[in-house]
TrEMBL record:
Belongs to the PPR family. P subfamily. Keywords: Repeat. PANTHER family: MITOCHONDRIAL GROUP I INTRON SPLICING FACTOR CCM1, PENTACOTRIPEPTIDE-REPEAT REGION OF PRORP DOMAIN-CONTAINING PROTEIN. Coiled coil: none annotated. PPR repeats lie at residues 63-97, 98-128, 134-168, 169-204, 205-239, 240-274, 275-309, 345-379. It comes from the Eukaryota. Signal peptide: none annotated. This is Pentatricopeptide repeat-containing protein.
């Protein structure tokens, strides 16, 4: 049944849901990764409802662009079958199906690891006259394969691109460099970078630099990281805040606190605004080094800059205080949490369990389980294993046995 509703109102609702980084509902707590995914699922659900409302309007005309955006959103929240249903509905309503629509569906299957279906769609595209795959199609599928470290399929896709006469672009090369670096396949990463540099149409950018620096810095190859940084700078590629965060993280994790401090001074001198990630990196680094004074100074500075700490920040504080045996400081962190809107997750509670266990505060450690229940978090294997280890070290075998039984029941 067709209904009547203001057209601009319906289109505005869809626009908010489709906009990149569009306005979301206000949440009373800051969210972790799992909650962000749930927010995406909720947005998709709202998008489908608004779309169904749109289709009921008297003025509605099928729009392939709206269908494609919904298919992309469903793919991001790993609902490929629903994406396929929308794809079929799009055809039934007489919308023109182009390579963009096929690519969106291929991406939905690829994101969920359903590669047989994704590659089947790729073959359909290759055999069509007006929906042939382009570099964007291949880059999306390559990225999906790299996320599960299926390097054989990636090699086949690159060969197929060459056969089809499709040249990789900067995005393709950046995706490869980033994945090879994360997998510590440095030979392939360097080879890909060399290939990229040989092509005039594929100039490296800040993303290329950051992926390369992260790979070497994350594996402790500080000299190589610094050499690459100098080469990228000499090529005219300017660092951004992510670049400095990578340098800070790499220096911090290898104990190069002087160099880390030098980067911090450079950022301040040239007015690079610190982000939440920046603060989390330096707070964690000084905390692990046992420099509680500097860690606390940075935490206060963070708040004065009106950057809200998240569960990562608080984990770093708790871990540092646990290592230093500062029970009263951990209690202060918990009081801060009670008066804040930080969303806690199991990772934070596991960190708290570990800190209390290290200090031999067994009653407080067990009390964390009640805190988890109140916060809507369930203990996992790490929670119980941490408690078992603490009880075992403390010679409390009966308590260790109790949690061994709980662990076995998970």
């Amino acid at each position: 049944m067709k209904t009547r509703r203001n057209r601009s109102e319906v289109e505005r609702e869809l626009g908010i849901l489709f906009s990149k980084g569009g306005k979301r509902r206000n949440h009373s707590k800051q969210s972790g990764t799992g909650n962000k995914f749930q927010m995406l699922v909720e947005d998709v659900r709202e998008g489908i409802l608004v779309f169904e409302l749109l289709r009921e309007q008297l003025w509605y005309r099928p729009n392939s662009g709206i269908y494609i955006k919904l298919i992309v959103m469903l793919g991001k929240c790993k609902q490929p079958e629903k994406a396929h249903s929308l794809f079929l509905a799009m055809i039934d309503e007489g919308c023109s199906v182009n390579h963009e629509a096929y690519t969106a569906l291929l991406s939905a299957y690829g994101r969920s690891g359903l590669f047989d279906k994704a590659f089947s769609i790729l073959e359909q595209m290759k055999n069509s006259h007006d929906c042939r795959p382009d570099v964007f199609t291949y880059s999306i599928l390559i990225k999906s394969c790299l996320q599960v470290y299926d390097f054989d399929r990636v090699r086949d896709l690159l060969s197929d691109m060459a056969v089809q006469g499709i040249k990789p672009n900067t995005i393709t090369y950046n995706t490869l460099i980033d994945a090879y670096g994360k997998a510590k396949r440095f030979t392939e990463m360097e080879s890909t970078l060399v290939q990229m540099l040989r092509l005039r149409e594929c100039e490296p950018d800040a993303w290329t630099m950051n992926s390369t620096l992260r790979a070497f810095g994350g594996s402790g190859q500080i000299d190589m990281m610094e050499k690459c940084y100098e080469k990228f700078q000499s090529a005219g590629i300017e660092p951004n805040i992510k670049t400095f965060n990578i340098l800070l993280d790499s220096y911090g994790k290898t104990g190069n606190y002087e160099k880390m401090s030098a980067v911090m001074e450079y950022m301040q001198k040239y007015h690079f605004s610190w982000t939440l990630v920046t603060y989390n990196i330096v707070i964690d680094a000084f905390g692990r080094a046992g420099d509680l004074k500097q860690m606390e100074f940075l935490f206060r500075l963070m708040q004065s800059e009106r950057i809200k700490p998240n569960y990562v920040t608080l984990c770093s504080l708790v871990r540092a205080y646990g290592n230093a045996g500062k029970v009263e400081k951990i209690e202060a962190v918990l009081r801060y949490i009670d008066n804040s809107d930080v969303m806690l997750d199991t990772v934070f509670f596991n960190c708290l369990v570990d800190a209390y266990g290290m200090m031999g505060c067994y009653a407080k450690m067990k009390g964390v389980l009640e805190m988890m229940e109140r916060g809507g978090c369930k203990p996992d294997k790490i929670t119980y294993r941490t408690m078992i280890k603490a009880y075992s070290i403390g010679g409390m075998t009966s308590h260790a046995k109790e949690f061994q039984n709980r662990l076995a029941s998970l």
